[in-house]
Every structure is written in C-alpha cells, then in structure tokens.
Amino acid sequence: MMTKDEARRALEAELRSRKLVKPMTLEELNVFCEEMYKRLEFKSHSERLTDILKWAKAWQSENLPRSFPRGTKLFGG
Predict the structure, then answer these.
(1) Ranked by mean pLDDT, which of 3-17, 36-50, 56-70 comes out on top?
(2) What is the pTM for the complete model shown?
(3) Most CB contacts within 10 A, which of 10, 11, 50, 62?
C-alpha cells in the first residue's frame, strides 16, 4: 500500500511516459483514471478516484498547452 504522495508521483510518472502533447478528452481522462484506480492502492479508498482525477487534471493543466498554432503536430513521438 502506498501513501497518497507516492500514488500521485506514480500517476504523474505514467502521464509523462505517455508523452501527451494535448490534454486528454473527457472520455480518455475517464479511461485513464479507471486504469490508475485499479493499479494504485493507497490508504484513502473512499477518495481514491476523486484524488486520481484531481491529480490528472492538475498535471495536464500545468504541463500541457491549451491551444495550438495551426499545423502543430498533435501526437508525441
């Protein structure tokens, strides 16, 4: 079992490994959060999905641009 801080760091590492260049759609975000919910075990079971969603949204907001100039490549590589 991991602490919330360890779980947040694991989630952020997973987001970085996906090399996202734009925020996920709501559907993609929901799928990602469900995957992480199944993988991450930390003490606060009742708040786990809420925390995962909050962390993922915060990471995207801090690390990904919101708009793109015309011709911008939208996939990592």
Answers:
(1) 3-17
(2) 0.73
(3) 11
